[in-house]
């Protein structure tokens, strides 16, 4: 196998792949024999944080499944602006241009933390789906979900206020990859304010202002490449109706007192201009 940016990858062992695959809903229904067949032709790859799986416009030579870590999918517009399309979580299939009969990848995929994935040659797609109806159905569901998500994003950009868009984006990320933390539910991978801006069609300044405001009101805790949701109910209300600032006492995090002293306004923290 000679995928793009192969120099940024090192092979993972087959036992590691089996162990990781068994923890994913996508492969859990398969027997050991079926799993062995599915792995034929697959190459395990390890991506360091910041490494690329592939670039937008490159020949769609492979399709993938993420086993561990997190990847960012971004598109460059004709005007040269980057748009973060989505994040890839363990168990997700990606690089499915071959399934849509597209010769090139429509976006760039980059690891936001150390990640492990499996790569199959695009020429194996027909055999892969024919031999494993469950995986074919999962791929179809994946593409359908992404189409629906794209429609939602377009509608939000057309009709919603910026505060609603940012609130909903954070809620989706927490729902997809949230991890319980001492002060709330954290997004389970490093994410910058610039990333959030590129997801929601706004600016770094606007996202920083909103997070600072929400932090003062006890709705979130935000730091360097870190967002923790402290009051899901309050943020959900903001996502539904953009309006006047809420009283801090209405937040769940403040029901037993004010936020912790270490939750100073976000304006006091360093802000990242890029991922």
From TrEMBL:
Transcription regulation keyword on record: yes
Residue ranges annotated for the Cyclic nucleotide-binding domain, each copy included: 26-146
Residue span, HTH crp-type domain: 160-233
InterPro entries, per database record: cNMP-bd_dom (IPR000595), cNMP-bd_dom_sf (IPR018490), Env_Response_Regulators (IPR050397), HTH_CRP (IPR012318), RmlC-like_jellyroll (IPR014710), WH-like_DNA-bd_sf (IPR036388), WH_DNA-bd_sf (IPR036390)
SUPFAM superfamilies hit by this protein: cAMP-binding domain-like (SSF51206), Winged helix' DNA-binding domain (SSF46785)
Coiled coil: none
Gene3D superfamilies: Jelly Rolls (2.60.120.10), Winged helix-like DNA-binding domain superfamily/Winged helix DNA-binding domain (1.10.10.10)
Keyword line: DNA-binding, Transcription, Transcription regulation
GO CC terms of this entry: cytosol
A molecular function GO annotation: DNA-binding transcription factor activity
Pfam hit, one: cNMP_binding
Keyword flag Transcription regulation: yes
Protein name: Crp/Fnr family transcriptional regulator
């Amino acid at each position: 196998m000679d995928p793009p940016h192969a120099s940024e990858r090192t092979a993972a062992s087959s036992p590691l792949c089996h162990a990781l695959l068994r923890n994913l809903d996508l492969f859990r229904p398969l027997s050991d024999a079926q799993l062995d067949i599915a792995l034929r032709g697959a190459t395990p790859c390890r991506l360091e944080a910041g490494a690329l799986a592939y670039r937008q416009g490159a020949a769609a030579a492979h399709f993938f499944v993420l086993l561990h870590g997190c990847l960012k999918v971004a598109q460059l517009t004709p005007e040269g602006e980057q748009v973060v399309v989505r994040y890839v979580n363990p168990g997700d299939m990606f690089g499915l241009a071959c399934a849509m009969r597209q010769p090139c990848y429509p976006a760039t995929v980059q690891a936001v933390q150390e990640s492990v994935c499996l790569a199959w040659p695009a020429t194996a797609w027909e055999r892969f789906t024919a031999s494993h109806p469950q995986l074919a159905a999962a791929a179809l569901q994946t593409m359908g979900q992404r189409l629906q998500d794209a429609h939602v994003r377009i509608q939000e950009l057309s009709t919603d206020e910026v505060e609603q868009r940012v609130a909903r984006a954070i809620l989706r990320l927490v729902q997809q990859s949230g991890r319980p933390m001492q002060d709330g539910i954290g997004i389970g991978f490093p994410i910058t304010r610039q990333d959030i801006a590129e997801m929601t069609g706004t600016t770094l300044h606007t996202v920083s202002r909103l997070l600072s405001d929400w932090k003062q009101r006890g709705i979130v805790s935000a730091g360097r490449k870190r967002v923790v949701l402290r009051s899901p109910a309050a943020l959900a209300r903001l996502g539904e109706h953009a309006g006047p600032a809420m009283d801090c006492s209405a937040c769940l995090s403040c029901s037993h007192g004010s936020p912790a002293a270490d939750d100073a306004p976000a304006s006091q923290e360093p802000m990242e201009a890029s991922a």
